[in-house]
């Protein structure tokens, strides 16, 4: 009985540790985007877009994932919502009315990189949560990855 109880406690402890490891950091979001920028420069945007849409684990890590837009804001790659592909949705705000998609394009066309805060449905929890997204322009595409706060 003690062995069963100990095994249950151990598995609960490990489950908690695993859940904590799923919380991505801003540094991880930046690293993912910079890795994608290097891949776009190296193997081309089409290869990265294909991998993102196929949920390649290089670009899709649960809550942390890469999104690729063209310079007009149209989605070229999104691993958690394929319905967005080909759509810009720049005029669609988050739940608080923030035009975060337009802000991504503005950052890319302006400074070339930066952060956007907004609210979005977390694909892991299914709930709308606060999110911050790192945006980086690479050639003629906008690369971004975000974390839930």
UniProtKB/TrEMBL annotation:
<dbReference type="GO" id="GO:0005886">
    <property type="term" value="C:plasma membrane"/>
</dbReference>
<keyword id="KW-0812">Transmembrane</keyword>
<protein>
    <submittedName>
        <fullName>Cache domain-containing protein</fullName>
    </submittedName>
</protein>
<feature type="signal peptide">
    <location>
        <begin position="1"/>
        <end position="21"/>
    </location>
</feature>
<keyword id="KW-0472">Membrane</keyword>
<keyword id="KW-0732">Signal</keyword>
<dbReference type="InterPro" id="IPR033480">
    <property type="entry name" value="sCache_2"/>
</dbReference>
<keyword id="KW-1133">Transmembrane helix</keyword>
<feature type="domain" description="Single Cache">
    <location>
        <begin position="18"/>
        <end position="102"/>
    </location>
</feature>
<dbReference type="Pfam" id="PF17200">
    <property type="entry name" value="sCache_2"/>
</dbReference>
<keyword id="KW-1003">Cell membrane</keyword>
